[in-house]
Fold this protein.
Amino acid sequence: MGSLRTFYQVDTVITMTKTNTTSVGSPYIPSRRKDKIKFISFGLGPVGLLILQAAVARSDFELVGAVDVNPSIVGQDIGRLIGNNREIGIPVSPDLLPLIDGIISQNQVGLVFHATQSFLDQTTPQFIDLLSCGLNVVSTCETLAYPYRRYPNLADQLDQVAKSNRCTLVGAGINPGFLLDLLPIFLTTACQEVTGIQAVRNIDAAKRRGPFQKKVGLNLSPENFTQQIETGQLSAHVGLAESVYLIGDTLGMNLDQVVEEHRPVIADCAYSSAEVEIEAGRVRGVNSFGRGLRNQQEVVRIDFNAVVSSQEYEEIKIEGYPPVIWRNELGTAGDSATAAVILNMGKRVVAAQPGLLTAVDLSLPHFTRT
Amino acid sequence: MGSLRTFYQVDTVITMTKTNTTSVGSPYIPSRRKDKIKFISFGLGPVGLLILQAAVARSDFELVGAVDVNPSIVGQDIGRLIGNNREIGIPVSPDLLPLIDGIISQNQVGLVFHATQSFLDQTTPQFIDLLSCGLNVVSTCETLAYPYRRYPNLADQLDQVAKSNRCTLVGAGINPGFLLDLLPIFLTTACQEVTGIQAVRNIDAAKRRGPFQKKVGLNLSPENFTQQIETGQLSAHVGLAESVYLIGDTLGMNLDQVVEEHRPVIADCAYSSAEVEIEAGRVRGVNSFGRGLRNQQEVVRIDFNAVVSSQEYEEIKIEGYPPVIWRNELGTAGDSATAAVILNMGKRVVAAQPGLLTAVDLSLPHFTRT
């Protein structure tokens, strides 16, 4: 064994200068660029378009097709649709199948950016079509971020279809998929013990898109809000239970109950800005939260507050040893960050093992342009 | 293709209550416990002992051996060494080889916690011994956190030895290995573009261990500090260049120069506390920083400040789109967090592919007790 020690050699001498400064390591040698990831955009609503726009602007992605059922955009050139001055020769296709006949046969598509609906029972047929064509998929579908609890049977079926077609399906996004689940999970790396996790995201609902404002019930009466939440007409934030379960199951917290709740925040005075007007006594926003319980004790809690004229921030608190509190005083710009998470996770999805996975199963995500 | 759509079924009905509350998902079914990870502690200085202590306290690790060359502890029972009331039947061995003759043959060891020296040319013979025995290793060796630049040849040799013995070697720790590199890298997941990264860690040197205080030169004269840094007698913080390169290379920032610098912080008055006394005009602490340059522009900068009586915090700033600033106002408790990172990364190392890897190559690290 001793002779093994002669294997090694010191191969860099560190030179100190008189200013206590050291220059370390060899200069950067650019690696050969990998092939671009060829992608299809599936779903071109506001979020789908943002993702598409961000991907088209980058040198490491290449658009090969786009799908949306909306008749008002079917047939339009993507270049025009994302506000570019010139056409790029790719029109919106109303259906996947004619599109893939032309491009999948050449086995050139690596990834689908999927952005349609929030609930997995709505999106499963779309995923089955995409996976059956051998396409890797990263999706904004909120309940896909951790599908095993709300939809155990669907999750099982999708995993089987993905595996038998040797491709990968992952749900991602800023929330669920990053801020209130993946980031708290990652921050526990510095903890020897974790007894509780709380994560809060606070956004100013006035600064968000119209469909988002509608989703959280702005300007409804309190009674209307409650009624529409109860009947499912109003979704508010979707994916609270998914974030809580992703945290609880990943960290081995043995949750025995997860509860979601949506409470209206009522305006005590009128709010008026360029973007939105709220009357006093009407819904100014929502406090949506998910709680993970073990033996009737709350061990995970995530809060998503979207309230007109409130301060934007995020805070993640890990109770344990040592305890940790991280805070983002700026708040995360929701839409552009969502597109970023989808693009950056998408690169991981292409390299991942086949099957239905979560963001925790992928190798450490991060931005890169290469 | 259309018939595939009949595959799916909705398998959970969400029931709303009158309080806007929903209980989601099926109750937790505990999975069968996996086997404990059997480990050897290699190096029982202050940090090695902390790691050992933390691992012994957990139900998911099992100590099978311990190695240290220090004659004052060789032969001592580990139970006594970590301050327990009873012996546990495992004495400190002065060498790896007699130890592994007894235990490796049964192929029962999954992991080595390695905590000896800071520079890879010092630790390489130890790693070659460990890897040659087929042992997975996670180490606090600072320059192992990203060894490819300072020690390209050693890195290549260690990778070959690890691969040919089908085991994995990773450098980790709170810093380098987490706070000033892995965490900033992970936070870029929410960015479409990254143009610069700055990370600062500020610690109160008065609250740290004696060896640490010595390492940063407390109470030296400014002249002595500079001289001892220049001759290498004083290391200050090790691994700045490793953090900068880990960030720059991972994010594809094409750094063409990385510079390390250590500046003494001089006491303008006397500091006196239970832990430490500093005379006016003497070294109160150090500002160590690493800078990553591209075309003479600083695109990565990490600062590690260890100064007596200064506020503890960390701050990570990502310049890009969207920009991000995260701050930990508490500061991270260095020693207990180091042990945590080593334990939590260690679990990932056991499952990883063979070779010399970095924390970025592992799947998302996190705390778990299962």
Notes: Confidence is low (pLDDT under 50) at residues 1-19 of chain A. Residues 334-351 of chain A form the longest helix (18 residues).
